[in-house]
Structure formats: structure tokens, C-alpha cells
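Support case: user asked for a sample of complex input and structure output to validate their parser. Sending the pair below.
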Amino acid sequence: MTNTPLLRIFDTLTRKKIDFQPLDPANVRLYVCGPTVYNLIHIGNARPLVAFDVVARHLRRRFPKVTYVRNITDVEDKIIKRAAESGEDPTALATRFAAEFHRDATSLGCLPPDVEPRVTGHMAEIIALIEDLVRREVAYVVDGGGAGSDVYYSVPAFAHYGELSGQPLDQLRDGERVGQGERERKRDPLDFALWKGAKQGEPAWPSPWGPGRPGWHIECSAMAEKYLGPTFDLHGGGVDLVFPHHENERAQSQGHNGDGTFARYWLHNGFVNFNDKKIAKSDETMRHLLKTAFIVRVLVEKHGGEALRYFLLTTQYRHPINFEVYDQGDELRFPGLEDAERQLEYGYLTRRRLDEQLSVGKDAPTQSGGPIADEASGWLDELSAALDDDFNTAGALAALQQGLSVANRLLDGKLAAPKDVKRRTLKRLQGDLAIASSELGLLEANPVEWLGAHRTRRAAAKKLDVAAIEAAIVERAAARAAKDFARSDALRDRVKAMGVELMDTPAGTTWRVAD
RNA sequence: GGCGUCGUCGCCAAGUUGGUAAGGCAACGGACUGCAAAUCCGUCAUUCUCCGGUUCAAAUCCGGACGACGCCUCCA
């Protein structure tokens, strides 16, 4: 195997699509900014989760080892605020929502990262890093007005500040809004807090500057270094994190380890828009939707986590994705998720047919060496090539579609092929589909179970009387046996009116919830 | 004001180191079926927001116009 670069990645820092050359091909290292756990996550939070899950999966396919680190921020202003509102202990609240987050991540088909560090478990590392920055005089201590002192990072001390976000310093200063009381403490309006002295009632940890807590950005610098070293390959997150979060992480880490250290490639996912607009908390309607319909838990309940995942992968991760919603009287409809469900149903139906076909007959022991139908080769390579090209999942999904389509054509006898070639091809397709599934995190479930669960969920959503449907099927079977087609059709019409389609197969009649 | 992304069929969405427009949904026609569903087949962008330019050749490069969205403030 040659070492020619396989992957092309759009890097935020250079704003170009460039070849990916890992520092150590034997261990590719990836850091992604995880959630601040103060809430159930919404669809916007789900995008980086899914996008970087595919990044990690694909890297694992291409390299022998990948170390994927995704943090959990469990000390932060929003958590403190939320906890104060409900009277809950901030730590307990964070722990609770971290667990909820894991549940959602799992339902979205995301594999756990290799390391999932939490801020509360890394106070020593954070404090050591800040101490070093103070020692190097790129940070300074200021009386915080409370029990402990504040520590600020001195932006003018870092020559490369603004590079990542492409913002000239004076422009950033123009936009800067300094909070009450901070103005007189900061030497420069761009300086940001590394450590915040504790105020009344806030969670605090002991430090050389008295009781306090870390600022928002420092934890990522400290934890990335601890698990991935001073310099690592990829750093990901949402576009909104480019400034100030990632700009600041970079400043801290390079201030500590020197120029050229820290992340070598920066990846940022685009936003999920709602009817072409950003899901902003400032808008009344959106705020309401964010608390209700856009919650991952709610969407998963209605359409399944895999449909949400599929939807999020229909657009390349960097581009904005539009989440359409329309109000149909008493319920909200999400065409993107409905479409995704249809695609998944097609995929699982195909996989089920494949499994059924290959489980019967014992002809043609499938030597893997023999020829297979031309149409069945190529699509998996196309899928991988699409992912090699800046993780183009939309292109990968198109390739997957080809694979599924070939399987169906073969099963339908639409492709001319000798019996042994056909069987070998089906076997190959089954294997290739499994590889594609594991790359995308899609169609990985047992087809029979998935289709059953899918039907059950949809039947429940439509409040269907399953017993009545099954009774109708039994009655219709008798009518058909007696060639009483008028009766048979009447029964079909009856369930059709309920929104159910009957499917006659050699193995008997089954049913599905109509679209 | 500064920085950046984008504008491809009714809808979603690939394709931009230039070489003659993937795929999906919807729609229509057909095969299969007692009738259906599922599946399969066929039709569905002489054209890529618009105007110029470079070129044998441009959705892809350059210039301009118009439009959309985002960041610069908590935010995925």
C-alpha cells in the first residue's frame, strides 16, 4: 500500500481544500468540541455530532488507528444559570444532561469517541496551563472583585490572533462588546478570561488565584493537549465556534507550546437552518420550536434516529442544511425526515430481500474469487471516494443508492447473469453493503427488526388499530382462497382507508403504513 | 462597516486543478399483480441567477451586477 494522500479536506485556516497528511499515519488524532450540557440537545446540536461521527468512521476505515476525543463541557455560565433557575445543583444538572446527551447520540447512530473528557475532571491540567501562560506573560492576573482573582489572556501578546477567523484585529475591536465591570479589568478589549474568580453561590475550585472556575475556552486547550499532545491532526466543531472559541483555543495553546502547534486542520460544520434562516434564540417562534419540535428526542420519537441521521447526511457537512417545517393543521410535518424514512425503508427492504434470497438454497458455494456482475462493482469505491473528498456524504449516499438498486435488479432477474455469478454477486453485495453501512452509520440494524419497529412507530403515530388490520388480512385470505375477489378488494379498500397498504407475497400477506 | 459561504430540474442535492450536467423525492407512462403494494423499466435541466471576458472548449477560470445566508455577541 502506498502512502499517497487519500483524503482531501477543506481547512478553515487556509480556506482551501488540501491533501490530508497525518502527523502520524499510525495514529490519526481528532478533537471535536462536544456539548455544554445544560439542556436536551436540538437538531442543530445533532449536526456536528453526526458529521464528525462520519469523519471518525471514515478515518478509521482509511487509517489503522484513530484517536477521537470529544469533550463534555460541564462547567459553564449557562449551566450555572440554568441550575440557579431550577434550584438544582449545577454539577447534578450537568451530569443529568450528559446522560441524556449520550442517549441521543446513541439514537443518532453515533459511536462513542475514544476519550470523552469533562472539564470538572481536568482542573489540575487547566490550572497548570494557565499558570504557564501567566509565567510566559501572555496572561495576567487581575483582582476579580470577589473571593478570587481573574486571569485574562493578553491577545496583543499573540501575533497570530485573528488568523483562523480571518479577522484583522482592529476590526475585531470594533465589534467587541465588553461586559459590565470587565472594561476596567482588561488591558485590551479583546482579552478573554482564562479563569474567573468565584462569585457568591457559584461553583468554585481552588487555584493559585483563589477559588474560581475556568473560562470558556481553556478546557479544550488543556484536554486536547492531555489526550492528543501539543500538536494533533484535526479539530472540528460548528462554524459559530470559529470565533471566538477556536481562535482563543489556538491562541492559548500556541501561547503555551509555540507557533505551529495545536490543530493542523480545522473542520467546521455548517448550520441547520429552519426555513432558510438560522435557528436563532432571539426569534419568538424559533425559541418555541427549539424547546419543542426541534428537540432531538422529539424528532427521534416521531421519525426514528436513523432518519434524522440520514437527513443530516444528505448535505455535505460544511454547507448549511435547510430543515423544512410545515404546519399541517394539528401537526408539524418535516418533509426532510419523511423522505429520509422512505429511503431507509427502501434500503432495509432491499437488505431483507438479499438476506432471504441468500438464506435459501445451497447451490453454488460462493467462492469469493469468481467473477461478479459488472454492475455490482464500482459503487462502493465511489462511495469511499466521495468520503475521501472532504467527507462528501451526499455523494456517498448517491453511491449507496446505486448499490441498493443493483441488488434489487439482480433479485428481480433484470440483470442477465449465470446462476453462480448471480449468487456470488448477491453475496458480494451483501458484504459491500455492510461495509457501506458501517462507514455511514446507516442501515446497520437487523432489517426485519428495523422494518417491524418502523411500522410499529408509524402505526402508533396514526393510531391504527393493528388487530383490526390483521383480522382483515385473515378474512381476506379466506376470500381470496375462495376466489371471492369482490370481497377481497372490499377488505383491501377498508384498510386502505385507514392508511394501510396490503402486500401479497409468496409467504403471505403483510402490510405497511402508507406514505 | 470588516470577514466568509453560497445561488445547479417543481423540491432535496452532487459535480468547480475546464472537456461537454450524478443520485434521490415528486410527476407521468409501462412491466409485474386477480386487483394492489413493494420492486424493476422508461420519460423528466441543450442548461447550471444575470451580463461581459479568457479558451478549441466554462456550471467550473477572470471581471461586474443582482440575490440568499452566516460570523464579528451566548450559540452546534
